[in-house]
Amino acid sequence: MVVENGQTAKKRRLTPPAFFALSFIVIILCGTILLMLPISSASGDPADFLIALFTATSATCVTGLVVVDPGTYWSDFGHLVILLLIQIGALSYPVFATGMIVMLNKDIQVKERLVLQYSLNTTSIGGIISFLKGVFITVFALELLGAISLYFAFVKEYPPLTSLKFAIFHSISAFCNAGFDILGNFQSLKKYVDNFHVVFTVTMLILIGGIGFIVIHDITQRLSGRKKHLGLHSKIALIVSLFFILIGAVMFFLLERGNPETLGTLDFKGKCLASYFQAVTPRTAGFSTLDVGKMKPATLLFLIVLMFIEASPGGTGGGIKTVTFMVIWLSIYAVLLGGKNVQFSNRAIPWEIVKRAFVIFVLSISLVLFSWFLFLLCEPFDPLESLFEVVSAFGTVGLSTGITSELSDAGKVILVFTMFLGRIGTMTAGMVFVSLFAKKSQVEYPTEEVSVG
């Protein structure tokens, strides 16, 4: 900003959170324009603006909720656009663009490193470039391996070229936790409910993509001998993830085993595979091997909890994240115990991290409740189904009871904003909002106690 009398003030630059949020808006708008082109639809007619916007947002925010069937509504070009949006959205534009520059051996300035640090959710900019290279190698190597594995499953039913397309698309969609499928007729992976090959490949891609790049990097460092122990972040992420997979599979099996619309007609192998898959897919994956709309209310409520927590920080998933969930419970335990520190695995967690976890939790609950309230005003669906849809959008999961394609324009707009805020994170959204409309106070006031509880 230039001031009179020749004096120049510092230019107001975008903060990393603001740049991160803005990058998603730009990608979504570009994707919307591309999907509105006649070449993007299978019919050759331009797509409606809201359909294109909803699909572009869902793909960029790696959600998977759809108002039209991706397999039949969009053309090959449309599928390519969706796939690129998924890949860029999963990594985030700052990571994707900077990664391309790094691969070309170009220098990265400090401000770009700060944006990278924020986007990747790392603790410092030290070693950020080598970390980024590892991310890119991991992503494309695993997506390639996933595509090869899925090709041999699809080629048994489809022509080679179609199988190759399906394999590449669904491998990237699975690793990025996007949940988009192009098999047609909103079927997702239901026809593979008891296919061990497909279930194992897809769930492995989902789990590795959702565990977070920090954990992947930590594990590779540990296996290569460069580190003697896993970091506290990785330990918490792995323990909580394993816990929710196990408890999720067991609970789903117990809740749905007698339901003839879901597990009831499957043999024991099918029940186990379906239960395991359904425990993994709420980690923002969005794929399903069963009809979610036919599940019991208690099961839907249980899945809502899993979707709200979701994946781990620094990965391709959404939700409040596993580590945030664990930090909150550790801090509650510490307060009830009367301890001064939040501890885990012989390490103390800084109170700044604890406060951040509670802020994320409160903002996330507030966003879900507000979106649900608006959704109930606009849509005639059952309250539990509506909450399921909203939490699925917030957690960028993509699971649905089948009402997404029946939404009104107002309902679509509500979910678009919910998906966007869920992907960039409520903390990021809050920081951007406060930086635009509030000034940080420089005054320190005297303290005074209040009564709570």
Which helices and strands, and how do they pair?
Layout: H1 16-35, H2 49-60, H3 70-73, H4 76-91, H5 93-103, H6 110-120, H7 128-154, H8 160-175, H9 196-211, H10 213-223, H11 232-256, H12 268-280, H13 297-309, H14 322-337, E1 342-344, E2 347-349, H15 351-378, H16 383-394, H17 409-424, H18 426-437
Antiparallel strand pairs: 1-2
Helix pairs in contact: 1-2, 1-4, 1-6, 1-18, 2-4, 2-17, 4-5, 5-7, 7-8, 7-9, 8-9, 9-10, 9-12, 10-11, 11-12, 11-13, 13-16, 14-15, 15-16, 15-17, 16-17, 17-18
Q: What would you say this structure looks like, in words?
A:
- This protein is mostly helical and 453 residues long.
- It is 62% helix and 1% strand.
- The protein contains 18 helices and two strands.
- Strands 1-2 form a two-stranded antiparallel sheet.
- The protein is globular and about 70 Å long.
- The N and C termini lie far apart (48 Å).
Put the structure in a nutshell.
The chain has 453 residues and is an all-alpha fold. 62% of the residues lie in helices and 1% in strands.
By secondary-structure content and strand pairing, the structural class works out as mainly alpha
Unreliable sequence segments? 1-11
Helix and strand string, N-terminal first?
HHHHHHHHHHHHHHEEHHHH
The rounded Rg comes to: 22 Å
Distance between the termini: 48 Å
Mean pLDDT: 86
- How much of the residues is beta strand, in percent? under 5%
